[in-house]
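Title: Request for sanity check on Outer membrane protein assembly factor BamB prediction

Description:
We are preparing a figure and want to confirm that the structure record we downloaded matches what your pipeline produces today. Could someone re-run it with the sequence below and paste the raw structure tokens into this thread? We only need the token string, no images.
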Amino acid sequence: MILDEDDRWKDADAEGAGPVLRGDQAVRALDLRTGAPRWKAAVPKGCLPREVAVGLKQVLAALACAGDEAKLAAFDPADGTARWTVPLGGRRPVASDASMSFVSADPVVLKVGEPRRQGVNAFLAFGPDGRRQGLVDAFGSHAAVADGRLFLGAGGGVVAFDLVTGDEAWRSGSEDPKRSVTAMHAGGGRVTLLTRHRRGHDELYVFDSATGDTVDERTFSRDEDDGNGELTGLSRYEDLFVAVRRGDGRRQPFSAFRGW
């Protein structure tokens, strides 16, 4: 799946600076083996795709549309046919210049942030038919979706929310301001956090995603973990958690932790 974004879309209202690539030409599917074109998505007229995501049963696009409104659209992965298009806003439209990023494609969860002070800054969940579900105010620096819930990491802990209602399900971990979440992974009935303490060590926490109960808790020195590099992600491979850091030529970019 490819999104051919035209840099001039941002200046589409400026005289003589209109885009050369129409929105309905921008989302394309290619054959993975040959690179041959498969289809172009039927993006609604007057809309420009800003972000795309591919789920198991549909292709999704966050759209900036005419009339200063942001929308969400779904397409058939077989031929790009439009399935549905829904506005992101509830009682009022979400502005088309809002930041939009997919946290998950299946289920559909989109983070939306309007630039104005009183604008929407939240995670929005949608059903497979585009019906609006839960809304969760955005906070923290890490988000993950698994097991029908949205998990937000903040401070030294995690808060879980139901995707359908947006209600808080549980919160666990430390609220010590000296701790900060550096990476988070959710899946397989577990939520795993890596946190950093100002006193100079890293910590690993594993919680049950249904209840928030602590399953595992460990502390590592930075010398042992080589953890001074900036974390860019946390992945799961069998019974290992693999932390990924930005390499600078001096530190190892990967650290692996075996779950208990």
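Thanks, this matches our download. The radius of gyration is 21 Å.
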